[in-house]
## 1
Amino acid sequence: MRHNGYSAPEPPGAAELLAEVEATAKDGLDRGRAPLGPGEHTEDELLAHFEAVVAADEKIEPRDWMPDAYRRSLVRQLSQHAHSEVVGMQPEGNWLTRAPSLKRKAILLAKVQDEAGHGLYLYSAVETLGVDRESLFQALHEGRQKYLSFINYPTPTWADAGALAWLTDGAAIVNQVPLCRSSYGPYARAMVRVCKEESFHHRQGFDALHVLSRGTKAQKRMAQDAVNRWWGPALAMFGPPHEQSTHSEQSMRWRIKRYTNDELRQRFVDICVPQAEVLGLTLPDPALAWNGERGHYDFTPPDFDELRRVVAGDGPCNRQRVGNRRRAHEEGAWVREAAVAHAAKRREGVR
Ligand code: FAQ
């Protein structure tokens, strides 16, 4: 067998997550029952139909009637998700010109481009809810809509690019696998593809750390320092504890969300421990220990005050991330205008 220079084993638990995604795709992502015809039903009948579709684990589709609050909640979560993918290109984009080899650079470039693609699927999904993309960008640039907290942390070393991918892509997959079964069809379908690609992202971060942790003492220390920096932000990604979560109860009733923030955080910890063992790195939590009674690892929760501060705009890189995004949007205006003009010419049959 040819040796490709990248020798990390499969991260334990990764295949099981991917199998869940495949099972969702096989189970079917399309609706079961026919939609109600427009204008023929009372509000009560429409609501009863909506609730029956959700209860039967079928999909709500863009043209279906849906409660306003369901639509608003989806717009909120989906746009935050889309913004996270796009602003999330920055911490690793930082390493594109300095990756340690041509292969690493090519891999990282593919990953960062994938994030842009994920943003595209998700912005398209928000548009199916009747919101135009430009208004979403405005909301992001003016700070009325947010993106996930971890993106506001810096990546000072090459190992940070690896730890970021191993831990935060790993957390993103754990969070997104249940979203593949979300009640809103366009969200669920986008997530199937996103999870498969995210699995490669996770793998490449794991692989980069695996190489470093088997390198020189200084490389191993660099990998460990980066893991120490990213463990807290990765745990915080899952959001506030259940009793402080404003949206979970309702989102779970609507089956947008399937599990509480705490359940997903626990699943992530349980998956990370054996992966860290394979890497030969330590997760920076002295309280981390197997609890046979619970059948889970005990761990120290992340600093939720820090999460609140970072979400409110006071993280290490908030201003820089939003400033870069705003500038990229302004400087890219001519590309969007050219694409629109080109599409118009094609519609008119001009080549
Ligand atoms: N950061 O009531 P809950 C990627 C907010 S990126 C910021 O529990 P919910 C690309 C929350 O919005 C991963 N804000 O809310 C990549 C709410 O505020 P609001 C993309 C947070 O919705 C990878 C408030 O706190 N994935 O993959 C955070 O039920 C690697 C109360 O919270 C997603 O976006 C936070 N961490 O649950 C790039 C997942 N946590 O809206 C580079 C989709 C909570 O009332 C490298 N989203 N908040 O102002 C979700 O699953 C959910 O929205 C949660 C929050 C779990 C984030």
Note: The beta strands are 289-291, 296-298.
## 2
Amino acid sequence: MSVDGDDAQTVSGARSGILDEVEAAEAALRDAALRGRIPGPRAADDPTCPDKPGDPDRDFVEMIDADQKIEPRDWMPDGYRRTLIRQIAQHAHSEIIGMQPEGNWLTRAPSLHRKAILLAKVQDEAGHGLYLYAAAETLGISREELVDLLLAGRQKYSSIFNYPTLTWADVGAIGWLVDGAAIINQVPLCRCSYGPYARAMIRICKEESFHQRQGYEILHTLAHGTPAQHQMAQDAVDRWWYPSLAMFGPPDADSTHSGQSMRWKIKRFSNDELRQRFVDMCVQQVEPLGLTLPDPELRWNEQRQAYDFTPPDYDELLRVIRGDGPCNRQRLAHRRAAHAAGGWVREAARAYAEKQAGRRKAGDTTAGVGVATAGVGAPPVGAGAG
Ligand code: BYC
């Protein structure tokens, strides 16, 4: 069964609204570039601009206030650079670790059609990881270093991927709720002040909107199937609801970075604002599924023009962030094993790149033709489904 009629409108309505926001962000990026940049922030001792005494802090703030993009060669405060590396790396690692819970179902998808769709989705996540590592590299850290930090447990990835996928319906719940939460969180990042991150997010968000729809369609099919299938869909929504709410991070009062990140226009909305948007979107979308959200306190608040809801258990979020969730150890162990098993691919890619560079140096103009440049010296990170 497919999603049709009013049900399709509910999801596509939300989806096209989201895609409209992404398109608007893309247009804003183009406009900012066309307007021409105000003189960018430079280091105080920059010899290229003797007539403008360097005040990089002031220039940086001017650029941010003018909604222009900070680019890799611009001067930026150390804290801005560190915050971006932390957030983009965490985001990239989430995409890569996030391939595991769904990859777990690749061999068990209920039909060849479902398997092909899931395979494409999991491959998309690898691509998102790649764009994000590339964006982080523009800040002066290598992908190798970032991967090492993840494997050593010194950088984080999203709490959500430390929960198990017990049934096929979980793949639907991940698509609808986890990708749905990701979209709500990530569409505003298309307007992030750092150019390479904003540009990567535009492409990612376009793909995520398909992911959300495929999850919704899986749940819709199950929810309108046999009573046992309906129950399986409800059970998956019940288990993924609160972990999805927790993806937005601690409540605003306990959020260490939100204030500064919003001043720097890295984040555009606070954790609680985005969580509320997500709840309001899901309440609309759950009805056509014929399912319910597992929160007896969920009700419309006329005064706030938003739904009241029970917040997630933030102590549980902290435990999961600190490494004590249901699957933390398994996820990292699997990634370490996949990374070690892929060592020969990295070595071969490096040897190939060196050989091609040698040939180019020797004047062979055909050297490297047909090789994806992104792969040279930086082979793709393996899925490591398990
Ligand atoms: N999980 O001050 P706060 C995806 C940490 S990919 C783990 O509010 P911030 C997808 C936070 O890092 C989903 N840690 O932080 C992929 C900080 O610790 P540190 C990933 C969390 O950065 C495949 C501390 O708690 N999305 O959706 O202002 C398939 C205090 O928090 C979490 C992104 O990464 C968490 N849930 O805000 C399907 C989006 N929450 O770093 C789907 C980009 C908080 O000081 N990231 N922490 O040690 C963001 O938007 C922000 O980083 C966050 C947190 C909203 C996540």
Note: Strands lie at 299-301, 306-308.
